[in-house]
Amino acid sequence: MKTERQKIKRKATITDVARYAGVSVSTVSVVVNNSEKFVEPRLRERILKAVKELNYYPNSIARSLKYQKTKTIGLVLTNITSPVTPIMVRTIQKITSTEGIDILIVSTEENKQTEKKAVDNFISRMIDGLIICPVASQDYSHLQNAKENCGIPVISIERKLPEEVNIPCVISNNEEISYQAMQHLIGHGRKRIALLTMPVYGSNTRERIVGCIRALSEAGLYHPALVCEADYLGLNAYELTQELIKKWKIDAIFAISQSLALGAYKAIMDCGLSIPEDVAMIAYDSVDWMNVVPCPITCVKQPMEEIATISANMLLHEQFNKDAGFQHIVVPSQIVIQHSCGC
To answer: In whole numbers, what is the pLDDT of the chain averaged over residues?
Structure first.
């Protein structure tokens, strides 16, 4: 004898569940949506049994149209392969999941058009909020449109937006902590200090460079030739570091990302030099490999979990306060002293 599920070849509807359980559609809706309205326990059990046997899933699109909420937020990141990214994703997901909210993730790879397309797509999907690490640009109209015209709360993380964009930002003290880290390196008596940077796609990179150069300039140690820009993923950091060693005889290097630091570390070793005796080193991001190499790396540890926590909680609050405007929340990074700097 065929089961009710076998009779229904198509996807089961709420009407099918109601018919199978012998109740009204509205009663099924109360049970399925966990409404606070009372349903007699045995009747609730019968409905849930029908839901299971018919393999019924609520129509989230229809529910979204009815309540004007999709229980989803967009998360736009620049580099999903970075080892610090999972910390942010996991933290945001943990917080939003307690509210029954799902996350849609897009990685832009620092491409502005990809970012704009992602935001437009999220708007069409009627997301309830947006957390974004934006690519540097003169045009943030797509973010302003999402907030002002579509009523979607938007939070910028890691990178500061211009005040006139009127979108809150959760960032770190990139310039000041980079200045302090470079001062620490200078304090070890190093004279030919190289700065290994990335292309300036956002305010965080620019601020790190400014902080480092400020410290070098104050000490009379700034040499433009010793500032080298690697590619976006740091794939040529190895070659750049080898050139800095062979041509300029550097005695220290500051790498402003962990991917740059990895290439620099390998280059120093392959040149037959020792860290920190021959070349001292400080880098950004506290990741696992920095602690297990023969000479653990002194680094700037970014507060990724804290930034994610604050931004997720702000977004949940913003859903009830969509008029909230410009503000910067600065979460300090910290310098983790190990052996590579000379300590």
So the answer is: 89
